[in-house]
User: What shape does this take?
Amino acid sequence: MELPLTGGCLCGKVRYVINALPVDTAICHCRTCQKAVGAPHFATLFVPASALEVTGEYKEFASLADSGNTMYRAFCPVCGTSLFGRNSKFTGVRPVSAVTLDDPGWYKPDKDIWVSSAQPWDVMDPQRGKFSGNPWK
Assistant: This one.
């Protein structure tokens, strides 16, 4: 992986640059992530909030996460791509959708979180650490 990391939405109207290495990576299986991304899990990298630079206009949807925190999920208003978020409790980091990176091939998640909400048909890598809920509380 080489910095900066770049990515964006399907239509290209929203782009981002990440100027620091991720502080963590995870596959989230919570129901709010499942519904937000329309998939059984959300592959995410957590980056320092100050390292994420966004160009283009995006919209945010606020919802109560399984943790009890407010999660603001950013998406492109044109194509609907789920891009990144911010959490009311963890303001120093931003979760970014790994699949929206221009080169997501280097991504390797460290852990599975909220496995208590995982769909029974979603196969998890047994080598990754498993957390029933939020490991960072």
About this structure: Helices lie at 31-37. The CA atoms of residues 25 and 110 lie 6 Å apart. The two ends are 28 Å apart (CA to CA). The mean pLDDT is 94.
